[in-house]
Amino acid sequence: MIRITNIKGDINVSAEQRRANIRSSVARGLPQIRGHHGKNTDRLCLIGGGPSLAQQESEIRDAVSAGAKLVAMNGTYGWLIARGLRPSAYVQVDARPTNLRFLADHGRVPDCSYFLASHLDPVFFDAVAGWPKVYLFHAIAGDDQLEFDVLNEFYFGRWQPVDGGSTVMLRSLRLFSLLGFAEFELFGCDSCYQGDAHHAYAQTENDGEAAQVLEVGGRSFYAATWQISQAMEFMDLVRVRGEEFAVRIHGDGLLAHLLRVGAAAYDELQAQRV
Fold it and tell me: Is this model's pTM higher than 0.70 or not?
């Protein structure tokens, strides 16, 4: 049996840098996201950059025509804009300053709301200075008490943690659930490769990354460490908070397969852990 190694995901900057970034971002006075007690009936399409996205443009257009709103994550912001599809929201979790291009290369979209994790590098906040509809959210990283202390010092304990996992897709599900949304469609959220492709567009950060073949529910998938971690964390999220939202995953990747075949495949995946 193939053994899955090093699958624990985490936010990819050091704890020390994350705290410094948080101190910088909260001092800017941007509105922070808090829990919403009502329900929002809008249907949200979370647009991920997985390889299946390349075949899903027509489905996304159909969803928009039916009244759904688009949430861009990372490089899908530019992907949507290039196709004349206007995102209603953008979410950024990856703190590395090199990823500023996801946002800065395309500029502001009118009426789009920008949700930026408070641990992002200051260059992100410099880039959106003066933009309307920019919001902070706090993607807590495990049990970092010093990170909690930074937030408590500024907000006097009145802040909303956004848990959910190690990737932007997982945090976005939790973020918008907290904002009252309960119906999600996921596009380009595969958690696996499609042939040699890890994304629907060029993303050099993932070129040459370690990946492995795994057998789940009678099928084989080729996936990188972060993709396996995302799939397992997604199933954990569904198990714990599945009654809070409904989700449909487009495509036929690992994530959709796990959701379709359910607990047995998840247990099989867990059994492959070292």
Answer: yes
